[in-house]
Amino acid sequence: MAPNLLESARRYFGRSPLPFPFVCDPDKRLFAVYGLGDRGVLEATRTAVVSFAHAFTHGDSVNQTRGAFFDVMNRNFVRRLHHHAMTAHEQGMFLIDKQGVIRNVTVVGPIDPVPSGAELAELARARCGAASVPA
């Protein structure tokens, strides 16, 4: 789930199918349902400066430029600009078992590190049972 518009997400991901469900939530209603909050304008400003600086100093300027281009070309540019300048939503990773029960919730800030794939696999083995997650 991300606060993207569907059109922007389709352009960003291209024709490649995602190996997981992706929900566009531009109004952030699902964020609220799952208890994820906005850390405010000051955090949004810090996040923007840090993330753009990191991208340009670590060779990821292509994706940053691509994302900015899609926002500019999108008719909802002003809405997206307001989103980036005024909000800093928390990110949530929800581990859900086959029965639909949430087994673990990890909440981080907008640019905080998220658990690695190996850490998530171990968490799934521990919380959902060894048989449900291949090693």
Description:
The structure is a single chain. The protein is mostly helical. The chain has two domains: 89 residues, no CATH class; 44 residues, no CATH class. Helices cover 48% and strands 10% of the residues. The protein contains six helices and two strands; from the N terminus they run H-H-H-H-H-E-E-H. It has a two-stranded antiparallel ribbon with strand order 1-2. The longest helix is centred in the middle third of the chain and has 17 residues. The model has no long low-confidence stretch (mean pLDDT 76).
Key traits:
135 residues; mainly alpha; two-stranded antiparallel ribbon; 6 helices
Number of strands: 2
Estimate the mean pLDDT confidence: 76
Q: Helix amount, in percent?
A: 40-55%
**Which structural class do you get from the secondary structure elements?**
mainly alpha
SSE pattern: HHHHHEEH
SS summary, helix count? 6
Tell me about the largest β-sheet: 2 strands, antiparallel
Rounded to the nearest angstrom, the radius of gyration is: 17 Å
Topology:
Elements: H1 6-13, H2 29-33, H3 41-57, H4 61-73, H5 77-86, E1 91-96, E2 102-108, H6 117-128
Antiparallel strand pairs: 1-2
Structure described in brief:
The chain has 135 residues and is mainly α.
